[in-house]
Amino acid sequence: MKKQTKAEYDKQRHKEWKLNNVLRVSEYGKEYYKKNREKILAYGKEYSKTPHKIRYQENHKLLKKYGISIEQRDQIIECQHGLCPICNKPLMNKSGIFVDHNHDTGKVRGVLCRKCNLAIGLLGEDVETLERGFQYLMYELVHSNTK
User: Fold this and answer.
1) CATH 3.40.1800.10: does it fit domain 51-145?
2) How far is residue 131's CA from residue 137's CA, in Å, rounded to a whole number?
3) Which of 78, 87, 91, 109 is in the most buried spot, having the most CB atoms within 10 Å?
């Protein structure tokens, strides 16, 4: 068995002390917060703007909502050559990138631009409705060329 270093021993003792003194620790935390509220809030506000925190929040949202990480989302975008698979326009910035998923199964289908994601959503993700929309546009295209 590995011999414990002094730092490891102290850390273990501190952990045990905190477990045995939960009320004292809680009261200390409350008092500290009262005395340092503005400082703590200012730090939190600044920390929330750091790239690390922003990336953490984005990753957490993707995992919670779609079950994928930032890396997996970025792989999907790479497989799509950085383009929206519907309109073929470049997926520009993070605010214009939407993970498309099946609302019934939750399965991720791809990454779309804002307009295409909105269009699919407004049409209720219904293939037949999309097909009728396609036929409607084709009809107009064919008939406008015969005039």
Assistant:
1) yes
2) 10
3) 91
